[in-house]
Amino acid sequence: PMPTSRRRFLAALATVSIAPRLLSAREAELPVVGEGKYRYRFNDRWARLPSQIQWGLTHGVVVDRNRHVHVFHTSRKESESKDCVVVFDARGNFVRSWGPQFLGGAHGFDLIVEDGREILYITDLQKGLFKTTLAGEVIWHVGKPDWYKDKPELKYRPSNVAVAPNGDVYLSDGYGSYYIHHYTRNGRYVRTFGGPGEATGRTQHPHGLFVDRRGAEPLLVIGENDPRGEKPGRLQALNLDGQHRRFLPTPVRSPRHFDQLGQLAAIPDLDARVTLVDENYQTVANLGDGWTNKTEVRALRTKTSDHFTPGKFVCPHDAAFDEDGSLFVAEWVAYGRLVKLEKLPAT
Questions:
Q1: How, if at all, do strands 259-261 and 264-269 pair?
Q2: How big is the CA angle at 29 (ends 24 and 35), to the nearest 5 degrees?
Q3: If exposure means fewest CB atoms within 10 Å of the residue's CB, which of 227, 230, 316, 325 is most exposed?
Q4: Which helix (DSSP H) or strand (DSSP E) does residue 206 occupy?
Q5: What are the backbone angles phi and psi of residue 41, rounded to the nearest 5°?
């Protein structure tokens, strides 16, 4: 049976109307970002983190069908608990944590529904790719693909995955040698494609991946970045065999990953904003744009959250939709930051 992506599961809910509710005094003071159909209340104090856990780099976030929010972070050596997966309920209350083995390496984090069961794909920068249950039970693990055995000159440092309609997995070596590795849902190696370079079909610093099912043909969308940081990034669409289809029109700076709800997709951009695009990759909103210049933003990310401007992002790294259209954003900042963009009625 074909697995059902959480994004596909929620597709029918993309036009959910948002009922007004009474706000607390604190909520009423929170900034609102966006306009028209894309208005959100910016809340970076939504999650109540227990005292035994200190955020490291908050690299990943997913939302399950119970509306529990799972955050993947690197943790800190001085944290009492080294658990790298932290789970909150829909109100931001702490539920549980697990995963101390990912200390320092936690990076990619994706959730799918496979044969009715919710599954996590976890990418650790040092330990490779893990397929697990929501509780962290390992289903299979690929450390370093065998493809590298006769290529000692190539580095391997994986960044993230995307999952095809049939369950096949695409793993990006985003911080290593820039190749994409294709596996079956059972962890069997299929092929490798891409690699460094700016030509079509080459995958330059492929940080984030997304299998887009909104068109006639599923496309593997790659969020690519200039390794030198001198030029804007780009979005490249390949077919599921790794053949180039086209470059996409969305203006991006440093695209990090993707999430989808119905016809809307979110692109967290490390250069201080979250971009929302329609099915044609036309920008419908840029949210919380905190960009000034690279020197200032990269210096700001090393500081504690009291230095951040309310309503402005610093370094968004991952994003995940809730079923009501709200969006959770995890940021690549030294002491962690999880922002809830609460969906508001259109104006």
A1: antiparallel
A2: 110
A3: 230
A4: strand 206-212
A5: -85, 125
% pLDDT > 90, the chain: 90
Match 């809830």 to its residue by tokens.
340
The first and second tokens of residue 256, run together, are: 């990090």
Residue pair 238/246 in contact (Cβ under 8 Å)? The answer is no
Q: Which residue has the tokens 């190749």?
A: 179
* Residue 33 backbone phi and psi in degrees, to 5: -115, 155
- Nearest Cα to Cα of residue 160 among 203, 125, 211, 187: 125
Q: Whole-model pTM?
A: 0.92
Given a contact cutoff of 8 angstroms between Cβ atoms, the answer to whether 161 and 170 are in contact is yes
- DSSP 8-state class, residue 155: -
Residue with structure tokens 């997995």?
A: 169
Per 3-state DSSP, the chain is made up of helix, strand and coil in percentages (nearest 5) of 10, 40, 50
Contact call for residues 316 and 273 (beta carbons, < 8 A):
yes
Sheet holding 327-331, edge to edge: 32-35, 38-43, 338-343, 327-331, 316-321
